[in-house]
Amino acid sequence: MIRFLLLLPLLSACGWMWDQPKAKAFRPAPLQVEVPEERVRFGENLNPEVRLGVKPEGGFAENPYTFAEADWVRGKALYGSFCAICHGVRGEGDGRVIPLGVPKPRSFHDPGVRAMPEGYFYFAATNGFGRMLSYKSRIPERERWLIAHYIKRCLLDAACPKEVMDAEVH
Ligand code: HEC
């Protein structure tokens, strides 16, 4: 910080960088690429079940993957990295940042949330939920399903192997 302050007079001596006169116009791009309007962005999936987590006829999408036990441990680690900070390690809505002013989410053990299918958690992670933002660009699709699977099977239904429950993940 001190070093930065010492540099300040020097920086102001240069004037503002965005105010530089530049007479030379930009060259037109040598290659004009025609982009068809219906073009799909790289990595974008048009299937609404994948893209949004809803079935075309309505309702939450079904998990298209079968996960092995090793995957579940990874699901636990991913949940711990991306969701637990707000939702709490057990999904009780008591994450570490809640006392710092982040709105408190409903506990996943609340009967209203507990009754929801796995696709609900995928939906929330994909599209965001109220004041919670979307994790679509940060967590790949299969991993979002894996997190949803972990929440539903391990945190809510207690239907996952003891090894997964006991696994230490970082
Ligand atoms: C920065 C904090 C934060 C993180 C990280 C976070 N959430 Fe949320 N989440 C919230 C808040 C706050 C709400 C409630 C939003 C509202 O009601 O406006 C919420 C709501 C939800 C809900 C809906 C609960 C209900 O009331 O029905 C689900 C499901 C959910 N989050 C899943 C996830 C998953 C899965 C992850 C990890 C990929 C995650 N969240 C990460 C803050 C967070």
Automatic annotation (TrEMBL):
GO MF, one example: electron transfer activity
Domain Cytochrome c span(s) in chain numbering: 70-155
UniProtKB keywords: Heme, Iron, Metal-binding
InterPro entries tied to this protein: Cyt_c-like_dom, Cyt_c-like_dom_sf
PROSITE patterns: CYTC
Name of the protein this chain belongs to: Cytochrome CBB3
Organism: Thermus brockianus
